[in-house]
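Hi support team,

I've been running sequence recovery on a batch of backbones for a student project. Most finish fine, but this one hangs at about 90% for roughly twenty minutes before it completes. I'm not sure whether the input is malformed or the queue is just slow. I've pasted the structure tokens below so you can try to reproduce it. Let me know if you need the job ID as well.

Thanks,
M.K.
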């Protein structure tokens, strides 16, 4: 699976503005419900699903990265959204460091295999320190998307 199979350029938010976990997830949920033709759920439903998942354990995986994910009723295929916050936000990450790179994955209710493959792929890409640094330095949605396309092609 390639990230660019599920992440499209309009689903990249170059600058998130919230200063806490719930605010960041709210911004991402609003973007997902407004910019993706595949997400028919209201932003509040998406946010609720993401917060419910967070209560099970933080999706802050360390190194400034969080991979919030949830299953959404009625969704037909995986949908991804990437966001970046330049200042970093507390996210209860496993290394206690602020999160700057947020990759949200929404999955249909019955997609365990594809969902897990996508999470593994996202995790693998974002483990690369050089790639994370590049994502923090790029100026806009277009260059961020191209970075994912390029990195996807390397692996």
């Amino acid at each position: 699976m390639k990230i660019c199979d599920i992440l499209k350029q309009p689903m990249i938010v170059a600058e998130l503005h919230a200063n806490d976990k719930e605010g960041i997830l709210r911004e991402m949920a609003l973007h997902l419900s407004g910019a993706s033709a595949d997400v028919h759920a209201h932003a509040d439903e998406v946010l609720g699903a993401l917060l419910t998942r967070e209560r099970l354990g933080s999706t802050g995986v360390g190194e400034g990265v969080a991979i919030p994910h949830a299953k959404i009723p009625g969704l037909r295929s995986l949908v991804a959204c990437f966001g970046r916050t330049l200042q970093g936000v507390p996210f209860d990450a496993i290394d206690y460091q602020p999160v700057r790179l947020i990759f949200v994955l929404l999955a249909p209710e019955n997609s365990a295999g594809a969902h897990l493959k996508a999470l593994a792929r996202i995790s693998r890409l974002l483990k690369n320190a050089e790639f994370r640094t590049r994502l923090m330095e790029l100026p806009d949605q277009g260059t961020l998307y191209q970075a994912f396309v390029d990195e996807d092609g390397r692996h």
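--
Follow-up from support: It reproduced on our side and the slowdown came from queue contention, not your input. The chain has a mean pLDDT of 94. No action needed from you.
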